[in-house]
Amino acid sequence: MWVVRTRSMLQTSAVPKHEQYRNTLDAFVKIYRREGMAAFYRGLLPSLLGVFHVIVQFPLYEHFKSLTSEFRRGDPLSPSSILLCSGGSKMLASMVTYPHEVLRTRLQMVPTFSDQSGVAQRQYTSFMQTILSILRHEGISGFYRGMGVNLVRTVPNSGLTILTYEVIMHYFATHSN
C-alpha cells in the first residue's frame, strides 16, 4: 500500500496520460505489470526501521510525564501538560528517526530515467546505494527534506491522540466500579 500511495502522490501532469493511475486498483495493476511483485516491497527495510520511532517516542513521553508530575508535586497532569509531553516526545522522535521516511520514499519512487535501450532504470536501487547517493549529492540535509511539513502534520495529531487515550484511561480508572 505504501508504494501505491507514494507513487500516486508523486504523479504529475508530466506523466503521460496512458501511464497515469486512474485509481488504486489501476495503480496496483500497472505497477505489477511494469515491475513485478518485487516493486511492492521497495522501501521495506526503511519502513521496518520506522519501528525505532516508537521506541524513541513512548519512553520519552513517559519520561516527560514523570518530570511534569514531579514539577506539579504529584497532581494529575492537565490536558495542556499531556499535549506538551506528547507533542515534545513526538517532535524529538521524528527528528531522530526522520531519515527512514526519506529513504523509504526514495526507494519507492517510479523509475526515473531510461538506459540506451529505452528500459526504465531506477535512480535509487538499494538501501545502501540510496544512503550513499543522498550523502554524495545532498549531504546530511538531504535526509531531512520535508521534515518541517511532517512535524506540522504529525505533532498535533500525536498530541491529540495521546490526550484522548489518557482521558479515556482516566475515565475508566475512576469509573470502574
From TrEMBL:
<protein>
    <recommendedName>
        <fullName>Mitochondrial carrier protein</fullName>
    </recommendedName>
</protein>
<dbReference type="Pfam" id="PF00153">
    <property type="entry name" value="Mito_carr"/>
</dbReference>
<keyword id="KW-0677">Repeat</keyword>
<dbReference type="GO" id="GO:0006862">
    <property type="term" value="P:nucleotide transport"/>
</dbReference>
<keyword id="KW-0812">Transmembrane</keyword>
<dbReference type="InterPro" id="IPR044712">
    <property type="entry name" value="SLC25A32-like"/>
</dbReference>
<feature type="transmembrane region" description="Helical">
    <location>
        <begin position="39"/>
        <end position="61"/>
    </location>
</feature>
<dbReference type="GO" id="GO:0055085">
    <property type="term" value="P:transmembrane transport"/>
</dbReference>
<keyword id="KW-0813">Transport</keyword>
<keyword id="KW-0472">Membrane</keyword>
<dbReference type="GO" id="GO:0016020">
    <property type="term" value="C:membrane"/>
</dbReference>
<keyword id="KW-1133">Transmembrane helix</keyword>
<dbReference type="InterPro" id="IPR018108">
    <property type="entry name" value="MCP_transmembrane"/>
</dbReference>
<feature type="repeat" description="Solcar">
    <location>
        <begin position="1"/>
        <end position="67"/>
    </location>
</feature>
<dbReference type="InterPro" id="IPR023395">
    <property type="entry name" value="MCP_dom_sf"/>
</dbReference>
<comment type="similarity">
    <text>Belongs to the mitochondrial carrier (TC 2.A.29) family.</text>
</comment>
<feature type="repeat" description="Solcar">
    <location>
        <begin position="81"/>
        <end position="171"/>
    </location>
</feature>
